[in-house]
Structure formats: structure tokens, C-alpha cells
Amino acid sequence: MGDVIEVSELTKRYGNKTAVDRLSFTVRPGRVTGFLGPNGAGKSTTLRMILGLDSPTAGSATVGGVPFRQHPRGLRHVGALLDAGHVHGGLSASAHLSALARSNAIPRCRVDEVLQEVGLAEAASRRIGGFSLGMKQRLGIAAALLGDPPVLMFDEPINGMDPEGVLWVRRLFRRLAAEGRTVFLSSHLMSEMENTADQLVVIGRGRLIAAESVRDFAARGTRRSVVVGTPQAAELAALLTAAGASVEPEGSAGAERLAVTGLPAERIGALAFENRIQLAELTTRTASLEAAFMELTADSTEYLAGQPR
């Protein structure tokens, strides 16, 4: 059912600043693809170019093989939520969606269906200006679903959501992908990407860093470490360093825990046993998406707290 999003050598410049730099990737149906990058990486600009809201300086972005602007009834092909606040506060939720339905030749009955689906049926006649951010997010998702499109794009869709809303959104996206749709979403929350996304597209300073599965990205970008607890921390640290490992204190001072990279847990345990060093903990730390993201985008972060770039 879903159509492929194809981005090829996409570039966007604003004067001397390059927001997106020869970016190429593919988003396929039947899976949730997460879009990650530090602030200022070019994520929102890329989404806007895919939707034809901004024109690229060079390159192309297509949905189902053609630019989005060539689709005659946009909401029937791509549903998108880029900014939940970009709605007329004086309209009711029902009136807002009804106007979108008329302009895209969508039956009026779909308005009631999507309001019910996103949990806003009882707020249908209320003015949007009185909605919380979470309610506006739900309304934006309803608008994206209105045309029952094969492609769905969301920019930070869970901002302002309560825990129940986050869980609902997560299940919704996975269901939409299971139906064969193309689901592409950006988020700065690594925990949500780990729980929701199958694939990742990661960019930094407008350039592609990775396009692969969540599992592969986490494993590729993270150095495996072993956490060791011992009352003989200083002695063990010297021993492991001599064996070629990198050793750093773990946690607060005096915690007697070490983070070790460069040696597997089995070798660390053997060295401790051979040298009669008591161990209270020996744990291999699994690959972390957040750690991988921080490591692989470290050189692409435009705004770094406390440090000029």
C-alpha cells in the first residue's frame, strides 16, 4: 500500500548557510523510520522539501516516484504533522478538519472517524485555541490521517503528550506501518525511537550520517563497555590498563566501580581471579541508541551547552 520516499542529493542553502547538504536516503513502506539529528541538523527543512513547502537549491525529493506537488489531492497521498500550533485558534476541531476534507475531496464522515480515532470526539465542537499542546498534537495527527494516505510524516509528534498519549502514539505508528504504510517521523527522544522505530535516518549539519536499522546503528556507534565493582578499584584499574584496556571511574567518587572498554568481561574476570582481586559486579553494558547517537553526532552538533564551537 505504501509509497517510497526517495531523497536524492537534496541540498538547501540560505545565503552562505547550507542547511541540507547533498542528502540521499530512502524511506520504505511497512516499517517505522525514525529521523534523527542534533538541533539545527536540517531535519525540519528536509521534511518541508519533501512536502514541497520549500524548494531545494539542488537535488530532488519524491513520494511514490513524483514530487509531492504533483499529487492532485495531497492528503490522499501524504498525511503530515509538522507543527501542531499552525492552526486557526478560532475554529473548532470539527470545522478545521471539515475544511481540509472539502479541499481534498474527502467525505465528511472521515472527520468524525479520525476525531474518534485520536480521542477528540468529545472536543469536536471546542475551539482549538483552548486546546492543550497534547490535544493540538492529536488534532494534527487526525489531520494527517484524514485522507487515509499511504505515506505519513510527523515532526516531533509526542511533544506535550502525557504518558498515555505517548503510548497511544507509539501503538498507532506501529499499526500504520503494519498496514503497509510508509511512516517517517522525527524525534529528539531516543527512548521513543528505541520503542517505536525499525529503521533510522541520522543526519548532522545537513549531511547523512547513517541509514540503517535501529539495532545496527546502536551496535555500530557504541563502544561496548564492562562495569566492574570492586573494593580494590585502584589496583584493578592499574592491572587492566597494563593489559591494554581503557578504564574510567563509574558513578560518584568512592563508588568503587569502573567502566572498562577494550577487554571482554571474561578476560577481566580472569585477570581479577589470577591477581586475587575481589569482584562485587561484572556486567557487560549493552549497546545504547542514545550513546551511539551522542558519539556519532558529536562532530555535527551545532549548539553545545557550555562550550563554544
TrEMBL record:
Keyword Transmembrane: no
Annotated InterPro entries: AAA+_ATPase, ABC_transporter-like_ATP-bd, ABC_transporter-like_CS, P-loop_NTPase
Similarity field: Belongs to the ABC transporter superfamily.
Keywords: ATP-binding, Nucleotide-binding, Transport
Annotated protein name in UniProt: ABC transporter ATP-binding protein
Cross-referenced Pfam families: ABC_tran (PF00005)
UniProt domain ABC transporter: residue ranges: 5-230
Statement: the UniProt record of this protein carries the keyword Secreted: no
Gene Ontology MF term list: ATP binding
Gene3D superfamilies found in the cross-reference section: P-loop containing nucleotide triphosphate hydrolases
